[in-house]
Amino acid sequence: MVSARCKMAVKEALKSLGLHFIVVDLGEVEIMEELSSDQLGQLKAALLVSGLELMDDKRSVLIEKIKTVITEMIHFSEEAPKTNYSDYISEKLNYDYTYLSNMFSEVKGITIQQFIIIHKIEKVKELLLYEELNLTEISYKLHYSSVAHLSNQFKKVTGLTPSQFTKLKDRKRTPIEEIGNEGLREKSKE
Predict the structure, then answer these.
(1) Other CB atoms within 10 Å distance of the CB of residue 132
(2) How high is the pLDDT of residue 117?
(3) Dihedral of CA 94/60/76/84: which sign?
(4) CB 52 within 8 A of CB 43
(5) Angle, helix 85-93 to helix 97-108, in steps of 10 degrees
(6) DSSP per position, the chain
(7) Across the 190 residues of the chain, what is the mean pLDDT of every consecutive 10-residue run?
């Protein structure tokens, strides 16, 4: 879950099944009742209707938590963390970064760093579309070392320079929920 819309969909699914929740947060749900296997199946089906998936495998849950921390850090936080990304993620999840990084790469097929870059580029696209900040302000806001660094990364990911992107009539962005899933689709095609 990476948005308020997702949380609402989960709450509605729980209510429709007569389940009482303590917490519905990004990536986590705490339910008061002990679920029978039948109720669990019904919940999974109800969530799938909304495009959501119930994660009960510990690795999958941790991967989702990593993705949620990164998404919140880049898309929903006004300020980037004061520490480097690896320390921030490790601290937020209370796990060693090397462990998180190895597991994420193994499961997702890309590194955490690549996932962060993809998200940062999507944020750059969003900020360019709104036309409220110039490229210098965007590079500062997203903690790039320079405009040139941002531009080089943008071109590597999109195939376009930021200025070429702003001139496009059909400027496509990837929905937040889909960011980082491209690597999995490519691997599954092989």
Answers:
(1) 9
(2) 94
(3) positive
(4) no
(5) 90
(6) --SHHHHHHHHHHHHHTT--EEEEETTEEEESSPPPHHHHHHHHHHHHHTT-----SHHHHHHHHHHHHHHIIIII-SS--SS-HHHHHHHHHTS-HHHHHHHHHHHHSS-HHHHHHHHHHHHHHHHHHHTSS-HHHHHHHTT-S-HHHHHHHHHHHHSS-HHHHHH-SS-----GGGTT-HHHHHHHH-
(7) 72 86 75 82 83 74 88 78 83 93 91 93 90 88 91 94 82 65 48
Calculate the CA 7 to chain-centre distance. Answer: 14
Entry pTM: 0.65
Which domains are assigned to the chain?
Answer: 1-54 (no CATH), 114-189 (1.10.10.60)
CB atoms within 10 A of CB 125: 21
In whole angstroms, give the CA distance from residue 175 to residue 143.
Answer: 22
**What are the tokens at 118?**
């993809």
- Please give the angle made by the CA atoms of 1, 72 and 24, to the nearest 5 degrees: 35
Q: Is 148 left (phi over 0), alpha (psi -120 to 50) or beta?
A: alpha
Q: Minimal CA–CA distance to 116: which of 73, 78, 178, 159?
A: 73
